[in-house]
Every structure is written in structure tokens, then in C-alpha cells.
Amino acid sequence: MPINIPKNLPAGEVLANENIFIMDEQRAITQDIRPLNILILNLMPEKQRTETQLLRLLSNSPLQVNVEFLHTASYESKNVSKSHLEQFYKNFDQVKDHRYDGMIITGAPVEKLKFEEVFYWNELTEIMEWTKTHVTSVMHICWGAQAALYYHYGIDKFPLNQKRTGVFTHDLLHPDIQLVKGWDDEFQAPHSRHTDVSEEEILSHEDLILLSTSKEAGPFTIQSKDGKHVMVTGHVEYDAATLGDEYHRDRNKGLKPDIPFDYYKDNDPTKKPLNRWRSHAYLMFSNWLNYYVYQQTPYAWK
């Protein structure tokens, strides 16, 4: 089944060229089925790139998915046009009276700040509190995962000595859990962050399950026992070029970033990187949509 996105969203043309089945709102309303309503709080600076990455993964499902985008009203993004936000995004006041089957909260380039120092933290906590009663399941990515662990479970982040960037090997700890159904026992996934969370605190928390971890990169996928919250500390949504673009961006700024770990062949930044995590990314999103959203959400919200 297709993914339903706003008409004229730039990501639509990109996805159509990849033979991903999409439809706009006008065609979707002619189908007599109940679509899943997914809200995406996009905190990433390159919003259009993140839109494409997430919509690509949400498309790989037999379910019809209706997507809406949310941005913070308390912070004005500097990397996307105001017209793009006005045309394709809503603010919290416009959605707070609605209920959603699923929600995604992305990462954000604010890791070095304490949570309470983030300009939109109060707005974000209001949204996270609202999800308890208005969203069936929430997937949190990278800094969004750390924010969820801190707000919902009291687990704080801590700084790393240097940025953790690259593609790391992970071990699957609970293959019986539905989110990771079909995953390999050992798999690769990208990380890009300056902070981490304690594996010991996650393991000792009575409401959390650590699904996979990496000796080099730390905890990767975590979920609450009730399936309400899924936390992914890496960036499975990244396409093959994203880590490299971040590396060259930082070099152009005069910084001295490490070459992303195990990313370029022969550790040579002139060589084209390969995507070695795509299948697990698609499987994670389809499992989440099926087992945590579709199978759990009411047909008609009361």
C-alpha cells in the first residue's frame, strides 16, 4: 500500500523516482480503508532531507500511512524556508486536540546542551506529556531518544570525549521482541552524536528493555515494556551519503572531525560509501508500524 503525503511535498518527487508508491491526499480519500495517522516532529536542521529519509522507510508497509509534519513554535528553523514550513508543517496548537496512531520524534543538533538549556525544551516536554494520552506508540531517534529516556524514565545523557560517528556492529539481545523480529543476530547501523546513555541504567530500569547494543557505540535500540516508547540512539534513517556529508561539512568549517568509523572503504574519504544498514532500517519501521501501531491502535479513537 502507498504512503499518503501532502500534495507537492518535495520529498514526493524523490520517492516517486525511487519507485516508492505514494499518493496525495486527494487520491487517498477515495479509498475506503482506515489509514494509520502518523505525526512526525522534525527537529533536524535539514528538514527536507529528513522528510525524505523517514517517508522512504514508512513506505515499506502493506498499510496506508497518512503523515503529518510538526515543528516547534518556540524555535524558528534557519535551514528551511518559511514557506515550506507554512505549507507542509503544523504547530502543536494545531494538532493537540487530535489523536495519532504513531509519532516519530527526530534527533536534533543540541546534544552538548543540558536538556533544560534547549530553547524549545518546555514545548517538547509538553508534547511528550501529550503523547501519553494522544498517541499509541512513539519512536524517538538519536537526541530524541535521549530526551525520551530523560523525560519519561529519568536516565540522563553524558558527554563523549569525541564525536561518535560511523557504522558500528551491534548484537541483538532479544530476538523474540516484535520490534526486531527478523533481524540478524549481528548487524550494522550508523551513529552520529556527541553524547551517550548508560547501558547499566537502562538494564536496571524496570520499565525498559534493551534490545540491541554495540561494544563500540553503546545501547542502540530500547523500548518500554508496554511498547509505548521506542528509542533508537543511532540514525537508521540516514542514507549512504549522510555521514560523509556531515564529515565534509565539519572539515569545511575548519574543524578536525574524525573520519567516520568503518564507513569509507579502506578508510578513504574519497571513496563512495555503501549503505549496509538499509534492510534493518526498513524492517524496524515496518515492524513498528505493524506490531506497535496498527495492532494496538483503536479503529476509532474515543
UniProtKB/TrEMBL annotation:
Pfam families: HTS
Annotated Gene Ontology cellular component terms: cytoplasm
Pathway in which this enzyme or protein is active: Amino-acid biosynthesis; L-methionine biosynthesis via de novo pathway; O-acetyl-L-homoserine from L-homoserine: step 1/1
GO MF annotations, alphabetized: homoserine O-acetyltransferase activity; homoserine O-succinyltransferase activity
EC number(s) reported in the record: 2.3.1.31
Localization, UniProt: Cytoplasm
Enzyme class: transferase
Important for acyl-CoA specificity (site feature) positions: E111
Site (Important for substrate specificity): S192
Record-linked HAMAP family: MetA_acyltransf (MF_00295)
Functional summary from the UniProt entry: Transfers an acetyl group from acetyl-CoA to L-homoserine, forming acetyl-L-homoserine.
UniProt record similarity statement: Belongs to the MetA family.
NCBIfam families per the UniProt record, alphabetical: metA
Protein name, per record: Homoserine O-acetyltransferase
Organism of derivation: Halobacillus andaensis
Gene that this sequence comes from: metA
